[in-house]
Design goal:
The chain has 736 residues and is α/β, with parallel strands linked by helices. It is built from 25 helices and 20 strands.
C-alpha cells in the first residue's frame, strides 16, 4: 500500500492517549501516514566524541569530571553552576531549575555531557545540556573513562515539536509505527525509473530517513524521497497540460530556446507569416531579433493547430463525440525592453487573419493605455480595429464600444480588469494575452478565459463553451528555470534573450546615504546635456513634517512628496520637475507622463508607479533612494526605464547606512549584472520561491523535502521521467 493509505489514527499507537494525540494534532499529525510523512528537520550526530575545546565548531558530546559546584543569585532565583572538565578545556554547566544536580553529580564524579556551548563572560558555558552520571567520586578517574563508549551515542532524528511534546516521545512512536507498518509500504516510483536513478525502495527510504545508522543513510533516503515528490508533482502537471491543450509541453526548459531548436532563417520566417503579419513586418523601421522571430514562429504554429482542430470540431454533427482541441498555453518571458509586446502584436494578427478577436490585459491603466497607444500606432494602419476598454468610460461611449466588441468590429481589446466585466461579450475571443502575469491571480486569468468560452462563436447546436481561448502570459521578470518547471510546469515557455541592437549597457553605481550630492551632481550633467531623469522613492509621504533640506531628509525614510520639494526647490530649482504616484488623479497622471515623454518635464519624482508602462527614450538617469528597501526584481524593472535608446544611461542606487546583509547582496547583484535572468536566479536564492513568485500569501505549493533551487538536477530528472511515462501511456491509449 501507499504510505498515504495508512489512515490509522495515531491514537492507536501504544502510549498515545487523548492528551498526546491533541499535541500531535497541533502539528497536523492525525494518522500514522501523517506521522511517517513528518520527516526530521535535522539530525543530532552523536556518533563521534566532540570535546569541549571544539565547542565553536559543533555540539559537545564528551565525558567530563565535575570539578566544582558554584551558586549564584538569591532566593528562588538561586542557580547551580557545575564546573566541568574533559581534559581538553574547562566549562560551566548553568543548571537553571536543576539544583538537584548538586547531589546527583557530586564533585569528583564522572559524567557524560551533550549540549551546545558558547563563550560567555570569558567562560565556556552551556544552559541547554544533557548530563548523565557514569561514576561516583573515586570509582574511576577521567583518564580511565576516556575509552568508554558514551551513553546515548548514535544518530538521532530531530523533529518539529510543540510545547508538551518531547523528541523522546516522537522518536518512540516513529519506531513503533515503522515496526508495525513499514513492511507493507509499496514503491510509488515506477520500477523502471527507480532503477534508472539508483533509488531506494520506498520502505527502505522511510526507515533510513527516520532511523539512520549513519549520515550517508539520510542522504540516500532524502534523494529518493525528493525525487518521488518531484516526480509525482511533474506527472500531475503533465496530465493537466494534456487535458487543457491536447499535447504535452516541452519537458526541457531552456533559458535560450534558440540554442535548443534548429536555426530559423529570415527567409523561412517571412514565408511563414500570415498576410497581416507580413504587412506589419514591412512597416517596421528595424529587423526583428532572432529570438523574436523564433517565438513568433512557434506561437503561429500553436495558433494554426488550434484553428485546425477547432474547425474540425465545428464541422462535426451535434451527437458526435467531441475531439480534443489544441489550445496554446504559453509563457513569454524576456528582459525589460526585449520586445515582448511587439511579438504579442504579431500573434494577434495571426488570430485576426483566422477571423478571431484578441484581448490584452494589463494590471494598471497606465500600462494598458501605453499598450493601446502602441497597438493603435502599429495596427490601425493595417485596418485592424483596436479598442481601449477602461472602467472610466462614459455610458454612451462604453455602450458603443461594447456593441463593436460583440459584433466583431473590434479585433483587439486592450484594458485592465474591465475586459472581463459582466457586460463585455465577445463575438469570437480566440487569444487572451496577460501582461505582467504575476500581478494577476488564477481567478482573474480564468475570468478572461471564460469570456472566450462564452463568446458567441463558442456556442453551437445547443452546445456551450466549445472552445477555450489561447493563453499567452508575458513577464518582464525572467522566471528562473527551477521555478518555471514547477509553478509554470504545464506551460510552454518562450524566451527572448537578445535585445534590440544599438543599445548600450546601463552603468549602475552604488552610493551610501550621506553621499547623495555626488549623485545629484552627476544627474545635473545629464540634464545639462538635454536628457531627463527619474527619482524613485519607497513611499508617497513620510507622515512627518516635510524635510526642509537634504540633511533633514537623511534622518528619516524619504518620501516622494518630501523629496519632490527638496529636489525642485533646492537641488534643481531651474529644472521643470513633476511628481507622480498612485494617489495622483488618473487624468493628471496621464498628463504628467505625456509631458515627460514630450520633454516638457525634465525630472520625474515618483514611487514604483513608473516600474512598468513608461517608455521615454531621452531619459538617461534612474535614481533610486533607499534602494535596499526594494526587491531585486523591482530594482531591475525600475532600472529598465532608462537605456531605451542609443544614449548611455545610468542607474544610481542609494542605500541606507544600516543596510542588512541581504540588502548588501542585492546591491552587489545589481551592480555586477544587467542580465535579468541571472538576477532572477539570485532573487530566487535570496527570497525563496514563494516570495519570488508573489504567492507566499496565497497557498504557494510547498514540498516536504524538495527545494527547487537546491534540487534543480533532480527536478530535471523527475520531469523528464514523468513526461516520458505519460507519453508512453498516451501512445498506448492512442491519444498521441
Amino acid at each position: 500500500m501507499k504510505i498515504a493509505e495508512i489512515q490509522v489514527p495515531v491514537s492507536t499507537l501504544s502510549g498515545v492517549g487523548p492528551n498526546t494525540a491533541a499535541l500531535f494534532a497541533r502539528l497536523n499529525i492525525f494518522t500514522v501516514a501523517d506521522l511517517l510523512s513528518t520527516y526530521p528537520r535535522e539530525y543530532d550526530d552523536r556518533t563521534k566524541r566532540a570535546p569541549i575545546c571544539e565547542f565553536a565548531k559543533s555540539k559537545i558530546h564528551t565525558i567530563v569530571e565535575i570539578k566544582a559546584h558554584e551558586w549564584f543569585g538569591y532566593g528562588r532565583m538561586k542557580t547551580l553552576k557545575l564546573v566541568v572538565s574533559d581534559g581538553t578545556a574547562e566549562a560551566e554547566l548553568v543548571a537553571f531549575n536543576r539544583g538537584f544536580l548538586e547531589k546527583s553529580l557530586p564533585v569528583g564524579s564522572i559524567a557524560a555531557v551533550t549540549g551546545k556551548f558558547e563563550l560567555k563572560y570569558g567562560k565556556i558555558q552551556s544552559t541547554s545540556f544533557e548530563v548523565q552520571r557514569l561514576f561516583l567520586p573515586n570509582e574511576k578517574t577521567l583518564e580511565e573513562s576516556e575509552s568508554l563508549i558514551i551513553p546515548d551515542s548514535g544518530l538521532f532524528s530531530v523533529y518539529p515539536l510543540t510545547e508538551g511534546l518531547s523528541q523522546k516521545t516522537f522518536r518512540k512512536l516513529i519506531k513503533q509505527a515503522l515496526k508495525q507498518y513499514s513492511l507493507g509500504i509499496d514503491d510509488e516510483i515506477p520500477e523502471e525509473f527507480r532503477q534508472k536513478r539508483n533509488l531506494l525502495h520506498k520502505k527502505d527510504a522511510i526507515i533510513k530517513i527516520h532511523l539512520p545508522s549513519q549520515i550517508s543513510d539520510t542522504e540516500e533516503a532524502r534523494r529518493t524521497l525528493i525525487y518521488e515528490e518531484l516526480f509525482s508533482f511533474q506527472l500531475s502537471m503533465a496530465k493537466r497540460a494534456f487535458e487543457h491543450r491536447g499535447n504535452l509541453p516541452d519537458e526541457h526548459f531552456s533559458e535560450s530556446e534558440t540554442e535548443t531548436q534548429p536555426p530559423l532563417s529570415k527567409e523561412d520566417f517571412e514565408k511563414s507569416l500570415s498576410p497581416l503579419q507580413k504587412k506589419l513586418l514591412g512597416t517596421l523601421p528595424f529587423s526583428l531579433t532572432e529570438d523574436q522571430m523564433r517565438v513568433v514562429f512557434d506561437m503561429d504554429n500553436d495558433i494554426d493547430a488550434g484553428f485546425s482542430s477547432r474547425n474540425t470540431e465545428l464541422l462535426k454533427p451535434k451527437n458526435e463525440k467531441s475531439a480534443r482541441i489544441v489550445t496554446m498555453q504559453r509563457l513569454l518571458q524576456g528582459d525589460v525592453g526585449s520586445g515582448k509586446t511587439l511579438v504579442a502584436f504579431f500573434v494577434c494578427l495571426r488570430v485576426v487573419d483566422w477571423g478571431g478577436q484578441c484581448v490584452l490585459m494589463a494590471p494598471t491603466e497606465l500600462l494598458a493605455r501605453q499598450h493601446a497607444e502602441n497597438a493603435a500606432n502599429l495596427l490601425e494602419s493595417l485596418d485592424v480595429s483596436v479598442a481601449f476598454l477602461t472602467g472610466n468610460l462614459k455610458a454612451k461611449e462604453r455602450g458603443n464600444l461594447l456593441k463593436a466588441i460583440e459584433n466583431g468590429t473590434v479585433k483587439l481589446v486592450v484594458g485592465t480588469h474591465a475586459v472581463f466585466s459582466k457586460s463585455v461579450v465577445y463575438k469570437d475571443l480566440q487569444l487572451a494575452i496577460i501582461d505582467e502575469q504575476h500581478k494577476f491571480g488564477v481567478a482573474q486569468r480564468n475570468s478572461i478565459l471564460d469570456k472566450g468560452r462564452q463568446s458567441i462563436a463558442a456556442q453551437k447546436d445547443g452546445r456551450q463553451n466549445l472552445f477555450t481561448p489561447h493563453l499567452l502570459m508575458m513577464s518582464a521578470t525572467p522566471i528562473p528555470q527551477s521555478l518555471a518547471l514547477t509553478s509554470f510546469g504545464d506551460l510552454d515557455i518562450s524566451t527572448i534573450r537578445t535585445m534590440p541592437g544599438g543599445r548600450k549597457p546601463i552603468q549602475t553605481y552604488l552610493t551610501k546615504m550621506g553621499n547623495e550630492m555626488n549623485v545629484y551632481n552627476a544627474v545635473r550633467k545629464e540634464l545639462d546635456a538635454g536628457h531627463q531623469a527619474y527619482f524613485v522613492y519607497p513611499r508617497i509621504e513620510s507622515g512627518e513634517e516635510r524635510a526642509e533640506s537634504v540633511e533633514d531628509a537623511r534622518q528619516t525614510l524619504k518620501s516622494a512628496e518630501n523629496m519632490f520639494q527638496v529636489l525642485s526647490e533646492q537641488i534643481y530649482p531651474d529644472v521643470k520637475c513633476a511628481l507622480v504616484h498612485s494617489s495622483v488623479d488618473e487624468e493628471e497622471q496621464n498628463k504628467i507622463l505625456n509631458d515627460f515623454k514630450d520633454g516638457k518635464i525634465k525630472i520625474l519624482v515618483a514611487t514604483t508607479v513608473v516600474e512598468v508602462g513608461v517608455d521615454v527614450a531621452n531619459a538617461t538617469c534612474m535614481v533610486i533612494e533607499h534602494a535596499d528597501r526594494f526587491g531585486l526584481a523591482a530594482l531591475h524593472q525600475l532600472r529598465g526605464r532608462v537605456g531605451r535608446s542609443s544614449l548611455q544611461s545610468y542607474c544610481y542606487l542609494i542605500y541606507s547606512q544600516h543596510i542588512t546583509e541581504i540588502g548588501v547582496q542585492r546591491m552587489k547583484v545589481l551592480r555586477q549584472s544587467t542580465d535579468g535572468f541571472k538576477i532572477a536566479e539570485e532573487d530566487l536564492r535570496l527570497r525563496g520561491p514563494g516570495e519570488f513568485s508573489g504567492t507566499a500569501q496565497s497557498g504557494y505549493l510547498t514540498f516536504a523535502l524538495a527545494d527547487i533551487t537546491r534540487d534543480r538536477e533532480v527536478l530535471l530528472q523527475a520531469r523528464t521521467d514523468a513526461f516520458n511515462l505519460l507519453r508512453q501511456r498516451m501512445t498506448q491509449d492512442g491519444l498521441l
